[in-house]
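Q: Hi! First time asking for a complex rather than a single chain. Here are the components, and I think there are two in total. Is that enough to go on?
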Amino acid sequence: MRFSLAYPSACGRKIAGSALFGWIVPVLVVGFGPVLMAEDAIEQIKADLPAAAWHFEEAADLSGAIGKVEFVSGPTKRDSHTLPEKNQGILFHGDGGRIEVADRPELRFDQGDTITIETWARIDKIDSGGNVYLIGKGRSTSSGVNQNWALRLVDSGGSSKLSFLFRSRPGGDHKGDYHRWTSSAGITADGKWHHLAVTYTFGEVKSIKGYVDGKPTTGKWDMGGETVQPPVVDEDVVIIGSSRGGAPSNSFHGAIDGIAIHRRALPAKRIAERYERVIPEPMAPQLTKVGENDVLVEIRETGGLTTEWPDLDRAPDEIFPLTAYSLTSLPHRYNERGSRLDRRLPLHVRFASRVELPEGKHTLLLRAPGLSRLTVDGKEVASIKAFNISGSAHGEMRSQPAERPAYPRLRMGTQEVTIEIEGGGSRLIVAEALIGNSSRRLSVNEFLVALDPNEGGSWQLLAAGKAESVPFTTEAFATLNRSQRDFFTTLDTERRRTAVAALVGEISTRHEQARAYLATLEPVPLPEGAKAADPVGVINAFLKAKLARATAASAANSAISKPEHAEVVSLLESTCFRCHGEKAQGGLKLDSREAALAEGESGLAAVVPGKPDESELIYRLTSDDKDEAMPPKGHGFTEEQVEMTRRWIADGAPWVSRSAVVEVPAEAEPLAFLRRLYLNTVGVLPTPDEAHAFLKLPAGTRVTTTIDALLVDPRHADHWVSYWQDALAENPRLIKPVLNNSGPFRYWLHEALLDNKPMDQFVADLVTFQGSIHGGGAGGFSRAAENDVPMAAKAHIIGTAFLGVEMKCARCHDSPYHSTKQEDLFSLAAMLEGKPITLPPTSTVPAEFFKREGKSDSVVKVTLQPGTAVAPKWPFPGLIRSEATGEKIDLAREIVRPENERFAQVIVNRVWKRYFGEGFVEPVNDWEGNLPSHPELLEFLSREFVASGYDMRHLSRLILNSEAYRREARFARAATPDERFFEAPLRQKFSAEQLVDSLLTASGIPNYSEELTFDVEGIYPAQNFLNLGFPDRAWQMISTASDRDRPSLTLPKADSILAIMSANGWRDERAEPIAERLNEPNVIQPGMLANSLMGIWVTRLSDYSDLTGLAIEAEDPAALIDDLFLRYLTRLPEAEEKAAFIELLQPGFDTRLATAQPDFQKLDYIPEVREVSWTNHLSVAANEFSTAIETRAYKGPSATQWISADWRERMEDAVWVLVNSPEMGFVP
Amino acid sequence: MKRRKFIQHSATLAALGGVEPLLASADKPDFPMGKAQACILLWLGGGPAQVDTFDPKPLGDPAAKKAGSAYPAIDTAVPGVQICEHLPELAKRMDRATILRTVSHDVIDEHAAAVNFMHTGRPVSGTVAYPSIGAVVSHELGAGQEGVPAYVLAGYPSVSRGAGFLGAKHSYLYLLDTEKGPAGLTRAPDITDERQARRDALLGKVRETVRETRSEEDPVVKYDALIDESSALASGAFSEAFDLKSEPEELRQRYGAEFGQRCLLGRRLIQQGVRFVEILDNLNFTNGTGWDTHNDGQVKQHELIRGLDQALSALMDDLEVHGMLETTLICVAGEFGRPSSFDGGGGRGHQGSVFSVLMAGGGLKHKGAIGKTDEASKVALERPISVPDWHSTIYHALGIDYHNDLYDGDRPVPITDRGTAIRELFV
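A: Yes, that's all I need. Here is the structure of the assembled complex.
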């Protein structure tokens, strides 16, 4: 560090004036006056005789550094031609790193003294609303209020303003106060260097002047107001880059250079000379990178202002071709682990190509969501200003144009301009726009150029070269937008796969190591005849072996037992084992006859065979004494059950289980199996075409080949997203996060599943919060809004999802049912945090609770006191011994290490349950005290899963190919592991997603939901308003609740889908993880199918439905009816059913068509343009508008005109009957 | 002796004794439970300003930003209890109601969070999804009649009003249109009786196949039975509750606009055996903001208040006429209150530190008002009331022992989080 009045020679590097402009073509000069011959900046400052100046050119310049401060490239000639070509500054990291300079008289400023503070600065990051110190004197401790002077940056709405701050000296009546002047101009984290200065004479309130990039800025005294009081003056140090003892919230994150303090007001002209920036010539669009008939799209992430064009002298960050000058969505960026990343905003998007224009006069239309301009052959012909929409909700509705324009209506949040141009030929047409910023979510909305050739009124989107133009009509535009989204989805897939290329080697090495580990283990003993090389055969053999054992046992004890004996044992198991099984509460075990007969710690036997009255069990079951009665909570045994238990003891307490009566169901019919397989793999019903195709395959191999095909079908990923949404508590909200809301990491889930990401990598990426928080990356998992310890919430999820450890209770106290302590949960949370977590008083049971209860022996124990810091530490030595104490990545490593067998077993158990309806271990999220039904099979499959490289599809393939999976479903859940045989899958009800997706698929209609957002315009930051787009599959739906109950905010079509989903077990919030949904059949479910708007959509023969084409093309009613049965029930009608349907559809069948030769073409569904967004939803007109939309929505889509109304209604009735059939909502 | 022996030998009796409630309620009240059978909650979404409604203070001035009530106060049927002049009808009936003036919580930042707290009475734990009042009532009392839902919500559905761990069975049935009834239970307008009969007849054939070819244990067969239950709900007595036109026109007029019509529906639903009806009044037609009276939402706030006065007094009278007021508890609440000071736009911000909740009817010993706030209506001076206290009072009035536990899986959760019923309303 250097400061001196006489400037040192070391810094001077004169640069020849002529060399200065060697690479710059001056386009536009920003700053003051004409471009002058440069004077070296350091010399310039030196000539101004500062009281002190710091240029950071030598190692010694960092001698006063505290914490992390390092050299970095400084501002150069590129930033201002007054600067040298090479220069050095210093970098701060916003973490308290700073430079302290000892006090000297010339750095003290008192009443009447004049100060100028100037500096170059580049912001790398500033928090919303943050205030950080560039330089200041005094206030060197956290409690210090002795600010003599300071120059700070204060963020306000994404712009960092100059903030000059001092403290007035107490004296007389005056107590002393902060006085702050804030500029109106500001700078942003745009990666550029800026020059900042402020001058002030203490005591003269009007003397304050601020300068940003050489230009004066206005400002005002806000906090403390202006004052004539003198400032605090003392001997405290000068601090650069931070304040208050290095408080991170006051620490600058960015680079600084050329700081100087002057004891006079540097003239405006002189300050202006500091910043003479020449905007570099933009890089010309490289049209050769795309085909002649493609529009080149270039994207640059700028980080600058939304009101000012950025430098374009560097290569774009990405390019891609489009068929027209139209962009309504964007591809994503991915990190090296394939998780979506946030882009640096604003985004500069540029379209360019040579367009062949016909001769004549044309109109061009430019539409953009922000600052935009259009140039033809290098000449600007049209521009649009940055869009300034008020963020309050009190805006007005748009006035509707008297005449509908000939092209699609402008979307909210965009602006448009038209201009006329003359002439034809090949023209270079370039359109640019700036999109999004730090306080405005990235939303392209509409950025496009359209053309009306020869002003003939036939609008088209501008296309390149000789490419065929796309008509700019509502329909064609919608089709283009859809194909653009598909194109980006493909591009995203490519990008993701490229991004993770480097990871592939790492993963395969890890999997090699896992296999090597497995090789060291004793092999799992297999049933006779089974071979490890045939894992499906092993599954069959294990299942068969257990059934055989049970049959043998049943033969043995059928002689002595009655059926109700098995019921009693089962009752004991379900009621008492929780505490008196593995855990032996009170020294008592009830999980075997020997144990029940043994004298426990009490000296009393729970069961004395033949003597109910001497059996403690009966006493406890019937006791009125609350301290003695068992079970201690909940509804006890009914009288009838007690009597049954007495009889059982009287009969000698034979320990028989219900397993005696297992019947193995027959193999399911091919179509029933196909329905099951489709629902279980791709989450939708097979279409009639798919069903026919299946039946045509060779019977011997069709199951296996269809399983293989469905597992790689992209719909397989859709089917699994909702499962993980539940298990991982994916819980975003459309408006401001509350109540454990997370980011929308559903997109990460979907992409990980599409890519069949190995499960160990899946966990590692999730647990390390890879990528974007609000933009769909795994970073979204890191959030738990309004939670006092978000990482504890995440630790709880990780425990249940991947380790089978349920720590719900450990959130506030030690688990009464489990061995986990509160400290365990918090050590895991601390690993996620990467540092110790202090237990807040809100996460405990208050001591007053125990006092009030007057009990010291409560089973609820608090062993962790609020205020205790819990260090990061792996808390489950029972699963795997580990000394890991570090961070997220260490945690991930411990979870997925092959030595931690629990992880693979938990995943295998979850997948098994998903297909069979029950797991080996129940519940799947809570293994403690719960034994597996098939321990060897579980172990075998888990090793197979690890050996496959944690391949979820491989695991699914094995299970789906098993004999048991092919059998007809069974109905009742097994009460205990003993009774679980998996002789067939359990009958399952459709999940909400299966139901909605299947109904839409079967009828061949789109998901007709509105765009899932309240911020149609895209003007709020993503942390406050999300846009989850137009859903396609049901997992993409989200609660539309706003808790504001305003008609203007309703999305009636989405709500009609959500209503049916909510009635079928879908959770409108997922604040906590669940292992299984509550989806008992309820009375609302049939009603929803029968009467709801979704029911209307599904059954109506509209021009959006496949049913309409089907009805038009049908050759006879019989074939039509077969098709409908296949479509909805995946079976052919029974004879009686068919007769009844024919009776309905035969009359008028031959005359059903409204015209002899209908020209029916299924239409794309195009949602209405939304006219109400958050910004105008409080207007009365918005309510009226939305209410009208709602009324229209409730009518459903219009019926087709191609079919006569009478017959159409009967066909709709036929469809309605199938949709409402009790079979519809069940997996066969 | 045997028992004694057992106890002496048992070193870990507590463990054997199972689990105590995790957050137990306070001492049991020494006064009897109420005999109310149903509850109607009128929800003033957005958070009504107590100084402009139930807890008047010296007049302020929005234009001059002088803190205080926006409207003068008037006397009521209960000596010493005053309310805002725009509640004249309620004032006459104040002897049958009590304003809890000192309710408070510390959730003020966000509507949704406060709505959640007011409905569940618990801070967000992140691990347990707590049920709302309506869901608890549904769970504890069930519906009063067969084939009727226990809990109906007139207004937009929301997470906070849901059943949490009690499951969809105890969640609300919601409706947005008083005359149309709940989604799923109202036939589409273009489906005539004749057409429905045609549908049902053919469906009968398909259902027959199901019953004939499947075992009784098959869940498909169980679902088949629900189809009948569902249509009974859609066409039975319950569905008649939505036929408001069958009420005398004069009565409908007395209830007033949409909010009033919802209140009338509330009475009809209770008559059908519904236990808990929540009625939302946050339609922002009247003043732009509903009860969330920031900025210019204040300008027409008095119209909202008058709408409430009309609907509430009509409901009280109507219940009385039907002999139902003593058995039907009415609550009027929002997610928080508002400060007596004015914001930059002449409206009011949010305030959870103290606000008013009104209770009426339900067989309570009404006092007109309970609790006293300071002149700025910012803090409770006497008789602070927590949200769990308010909930406990509702449960106690309905004969629900709020010391009981609910079960989240096998985790016992007391019905209220250490609430105590308000003694003054029972003795």
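A: Chain A has a mean pLDDT of 88. Let me know if you'd like any chain examined more closely.
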